[in-house]
Amino acid sequence: MKFGVLTGGGDCPGLNAVIRAITRKAVDVSGDTVIGFYDSWDGVLEQRYINLDTLTVRGILPRGGTILGTRRGSPFDKPDGVDRVAQTFKDLKLDGLIVIGGNGSLTVASMLHTKHGLPMIGVPKTIDNDVVGTDATFGFQTAVQIATDAIDRLHTTAESHDRVMVVEVMGRDAGWIALHAGIAGGATAILVPEVPFDIDDVSEIVKRRHNRGRYASVVVVAEGARPKSGTFEMPERKLDRYGREQLGDIAHVIAPEISARTGFESRVVQLGHIQRGGTPTSYDRVLSTRFGLAAVDAVHRKLFGQMVVLKSGEITCTDMSVTANQTKTIDLTLFADVAATFFG
Ligand code: F6P
């Protein structure tokens, strides 16, 4: 068979491991031809690609980022975008396309399949772990480890100065990284988009901790966390070029509010794209590898419209349309029963 592969949306550790697994299985084992489109859908529209083989994927297993490049955006943004995708399929005689992406790219791939009959297979990725239909996405565990390591380091400097460290992590619509890194790092409080926070309650938690004789607090906040309505107003946010709210201000907003209420000095640490860079953990490399191999099987079995997923430890397939405009939000029991036990 001959098929393409692309990486879409924000990059994440493990993308190269998927590309390698796809190439090694398809080209070396099955004798397929695999082409890697550059820069996500742009490469499909403009027919910019590379022929993938053992040599082109050599050494990329531990490398972060994606050798193919990635972009946000979709063929549906352009008037002739879908026709051009279909033309590329025809011109290159493709039997399928593996789309490695998050909610946005998988929704696009699903629509191209259901509405336009194009043979798509999805592979879910994102550090945010917010794709519906899979127990986990690769990249998430790496991001959590990076955030946990940072929190561990911040504890000692916070203790030395008796400060409140407000650590902002990624998580626009779902607080998975904040929740897991917060639990692993022993956070004083964790603020996530799913559970609007009351800044007075957060400040009380900090005071209570210090009254018990503990020095220093680390408040972990997801970038998409929001205050309970009627508590305090967030400054109005601009939209970025993709129409998303420009986040990245929440830690700077809440740190002075906590200081004002508690009297403790606060400092802000924004981990930002450090969470997305660098080498994937071994867990993510294994998950990426399993996903890549399963995606090739899915192409061979012509399971178009499906994506490979992790379910109770097994790799299986599910309809890609489950991702359409959906977000897998955090496990609220984990938040309430586990994380919250240690607040304060
Ligand atoms: O890919 C997901 C994500 O890392 C989100 O957590 C974050 O809000 C966003 O990407 C940042 O996007 P960009 O890289 O375009 O600034």
How would you explain this protein's 3D organization?
The protein is of the alpha/beta class and 344 residues long. The protein has 2 domains: 2-139 and 280-322, Rossmann fold (3-Layer(aba) Sandwich), CATH 3.40.50; 142-277, Rossmann fold. It is built from 10 helices and 11 strands. The protein has helices spanning 15-29, 41-46, 81-92, 103-114, 140-161, 176-185, 199-211, 250-262, 282-300, 332-338, and strands spanning 2-7, 33-37, 49-52, 96-101, 120-124, 164-169, 189-191, 217-222, 266-270, 306-311, 314-319. A 7-stranded mixed sheet has the order 3-2-1-4-5-10-11, sandwiched between helices. It has a 4-stranded parallel sheet with strand order 7-8-6-9, with helices on both faces. The N and C termini lie far apart (58 Å). It binds 6-O-phosphono-beta-D-fructofuranose. 6-O-phosphono-beta-D-fructofuranose is lined by residues 9-10, 102, 126-128, 170-172, 223, 247, 276.
